[in-house]
Write a structure and sequence with these properties.
Elements (H helix, E strand, L loop, with lengths): L1 H22 L2 H14 L3 H4 L12 H10 L7 H22 L2 H13 L7 H17 L2 H19 L3 H13 L10 H10 L3 H30 L11 H8 L4 H11 L4 H15 L10 H35 L1 H12 L4 H16 L4 H11 L1 H6 L4 H13 L9 H9 L1
Length: 415
Amino acid sequence: MYKRQVLGILTTALVLEATRRTIGPILPITAICFLAYGYLGPALDLIGLELFAHRGYDTARLVGTLYMTLEGIWGVPLDVASTYIVLFTIFGAVLAHSGAGQFFINWTLSVFGRSKSGAGPGRTVTLSGFLLGTVSGSGVATTVTLGAVAWPLLKRSGFSPEVAGGILSASGIGAILAPPTMGAAAFLIAEFLNISYLQVIVMAIIPAALYYLSIILMIEADARRMGMKAVAITLPSATTLMQTAGYQFLPLVLMVALLISGMTPFRAVFFATLLAIGLSFIQKKRALYPNRLLAALDAGGRGVLSVAATTATAGVIVGIVTLTGLGLKIAGIIVTLAGGNVFLTVTYSALAVWMLGLAVPVTASYIIAAVMVAPALTLVGVPAVAAHMFIFYYAVLSEVSPPTALSPFAAAAIT
């Protein structure tokens, strides 16, 4: 038993350190505060916080829950990260190394960039963000990829660095909302609700379309207000691009088709990845020979590190919340403050998730809210599916909410 405690403490410490190194100190500090809460529960009575007090748990019980059960570090979040998310991350990296990412940008520029309106470049960036987002699932990665190509275009059109940065970051975070890949939280929704990933994709299609439409409408308004000018695009026609590299769309089409046929996301993305590798040999300079394939796998593996560390640390928080009953207490407080009113409960829940997102990234924000805020919504009659999608969309705001606004930081560095 003593050895298990030592191993449990070491594992927890290593998880927190890995998270600190990959995404910064805020989430590990938050997890440490929850650990302290689990240990010092009775002391809250002494300082007037009876509502949050509990009987307290010793080190053996805390370590047992976090290290020896599936309610802590090894829970649903890390399980999803080590299965589905890692494969989808590798899929995105393979497409990027095979030239699909650049093709998506060029194709969008060719189709939508040839406009006499000054809004053309901004519109093109937004739609490019959507196409890139369908395979990347990462707001920061999409923002950086877009920025490298699109910032000179936006600059020539007359967009200021601040406005261009806003367009890039807003278009980038849509990657977390855009099916079929979406962000890590989307896989967690399927697991928490025990539904298929295809159902999550179907639920996300209309909101994602409306999100990108809202960006385009804002760009149209700003372009007219700021007097933006059209920019000449020196690219082959969309028809020519489709003839030479239109096959780049096939892995996406295959994955969606396999999901619709009833195949598991695990197998669907596996076969789509194999197809992407095979198609890369059509153009010799993009062929994923062993060295390039290893580079793609390396990029995919590195890309999942932050997600794995985040989900493991979030598992620590979820374990404490479950052990102490804090989730039900928070849900009860929200419902009590709202007086059982659905509108007020939804409003308070949105504020709670938004504030949570000020400190922690999307995936962790969703996981914590799923066990602390979603129950409040279901208590007042909101269907569980709607409750989880609701907190998912507010969790995404952490990508643009300081101080954890990773996508705007990336866009600012570029512009």
